[in-house]
Automatic annotation (TrEMBL):
UniProt organism field: Phoenix dactylifera
Coarse class of the protein's main subcellular location: membrane
Membrane topology term: Single-pass membrane protein
Name listed for the protein in its UniProt record: Cytochrome P450 90B1-like
Alphabetical list of Gene3D superfamilies matching this protein: Cytochrome P450 (1.10.630.10)
GO process annotations (BP): brassinosteroid biosynthetic process; brassinosteroid homeostasis; sterol metabolic process
Length: 483
């Protein structure tokens, strides 16, 4: 027992030294600076576990509610072993996002950077982030959405919906994920659904995502270790596709695909292979998670609001009727722009669903805001869902009300109170793609089916959004209804 006791005493002594050093540092800062109220708590873990507790994505959660009531909308805590300013103040959050690169910079947790890759857009800052982001923006520009994405989005949506068996119970969340995954790998690497590489990628990606939401322990058998192994397999498959594409470029082969991302980056000699692969993986992650979550949320909220589902159905029936009269098949960009109530549904789904709850930033200069000091080097966590649930911005913010967007002033959107896709220089380049995917999916969904929840379920922040039971639903084809 002696060695174990000695080890325990040594660890306890080290912990006490760190604790009092941390507390003394905090007290010194308090004397010199006017920090927001709060409690740094214990070193290393602080209040991280409580902060990360799952809760309904349509709320701020018990931890935030309690701390806002006690300390106000801006408070300090110890998160992930670092002194952190947490903000549920919409004005401060906009200020943080708009000050990117001047006062604040992205601060991706080490565990996320390791699993996503050091060249991932989630981890990069400065000029290299702007370079990588510009590639993503060009790839998902409005021109590309019209010419390359729209037709394939509709094709993939129809395939998924046609595979649904009436009166059977299945996971709407998994169906949304399958739809989004198939679309992204097609446009990133020209991989079609059902191909062995596509199915292997999907399996590895599921394991990869489980590790993203796990405790970052790189030990045998842990979800995090398995995710790192899946990352290696995913990059190997992507690397093989990239090598094939580079070879075609070098040989000036005819028929080289022009509409996927590999075709674009394979021609850029200034990007290393590692950079390209991390970029593709980060775009797969961003495009898949956002779009699939939005589809699940829309199915969930519309099921609870039949009036909205019926109005949405009438809008899309009218669009379909007009296309038949013109002898047209397939949606076009003008059809998308005519989906006025659909866009209200999308805005409300993103507002109340809160796909992304918070972001990680770091102060790169001493910052003063509303009488508070934010020291250089401190972490800053803007709770972007706070604006979406603020009663001073939205009447009855806990209710699902798409009609609010018919009367709401354009000033609200211009003031960035809707921050579902972040904001400022790091605004998600795939925001418009996600909205287009949801609109097209809904166009075919509401004309083909009615649906109901097979079991009670609800969206949870964990911290990634998901449904504990997978959002089980039953569908009933509209063509079986009596006239």
């Amino acid at each position: 027992m002696a060695p174990e006791l000695l080890l325990l005493l040594s660890l306890t002594l080290v912990a006490l030294i760190i604790f009092f050093t941390f507390r003394r540092s905090g007290k010194t800062d308090n004397k010199r600076l006017k920090l927001p109220q709060g409690n740094l708590g214990w070193p290393l873990i602080g209040e991280t576990i409580s902060f990360m507790q799952p809760h309904s994505s349509a709320s701020l959660g018990g931890f935030m509610d309690q701390h806002i009531a006690k300390y106000g909308k801006i408070f300090r805590m110890n998160l992930l072993g670092k002194p952190t300013i947490v903000s549920a103040d919409p004005d401060f959050n906009r200020f943080i996002l708009q000050s990117e690169g001047r006062l604040f910079e992205n601060s991706c947790p080490t565990s996320i950077a390791e699993i996503m890759g050091r060249w991932s857009m989630l981890a990069l800052v400065g000029d290299i982030h702007r370079e990588m982001r510009s590639i993503a923006v060009n790839f998902m520009s409005n021109v590309k959405l019209r010419t390359y994405f729209l037709g394939d989005i509709e094709l993939q949506a129809i395939k998924i919906l046609d595979s649904w068996k009436p009166n059977s119970t299945f996971s709407a969340q998994e169906q949304g994920k399958k739809f989004a995954f198939n679309l992204m790998v097609k446009h990133l690497m020209s991989l079609d659904p059902g191909m062995p590489e596509t199915e292997q990628l999907r399996r590895e990606y599921i394991t990869f995502m489980k590790g993203m939401a796990s405790i970052p322990l790189n030990l045998p058998g842990t979800a995090y270790r398995k995710a790192l192994q899946s990352r290696a397999t995913i990059l190997k498959i992507m690397g093989q596709k990239l090598d094939e594409r580079i070879k075609k470029v070098d040989e000036n082969c005819e028929g080289l695909e022009q509409d996927d991302l590999l075709a674009s980056v394979a021609k850029q000699p200034n990007l290393a292979k590692e950079q390209i692969l991390d970029l593709i993986l980060s775009m797969l992650f961003a495009g898949h998670e956002t779009s699939s979550a939005a589809i699940s949320l829309a199915i969930y909220f519309l099921e609870s609001c039949p009036k909205a589902a019926d109005q949405l159905r009438e809008e899309h029936r009218e669009i379909a009727r007009m296309k038949r009269e013109k002898g047209e098949t397939g949606l076009n960009w003008d059809d998308y722009k005519q989906m006025e109530f659909t866009h209200c549904v999308i805005n409300e789904t993103l507002r109340l669903g809160n796909i992304v709850k918070f972001l990680h930033r770091r102060a790169i200069k001493d910052v003063q805001y509303k009488g508070f000091d934010i020291p250089c080097g401190w972490e800053v966590v803007p709770i972007i869902s706070a604006a979406h649930l603020d009663p001073s911005i939205y009447d009855d913010p806990q209710s699902y009300n798409p009609w609010r967007w018919q009367a709401i002033s354009a000033t609200v959107t211009k003031n960035c109170n809707v921050m579902s896709f972040s904001g400022g220089p790091r605004l998600c380049p795939g925001a418009e793609l996600a909205k287009l995917e949801l609109a097209v999916f809904l166009h075919h969904l509401v004309q083909k089916y009615r649906w109901e929840l097979a079991e009670h379920d609800y969206p949870v922040s964990f911290p990634f959004l998901g449904f504990p039971k997978g959002l089980p639903i039953k569908v009933r084809p509209l063509n079986e209804e009596k006239p």
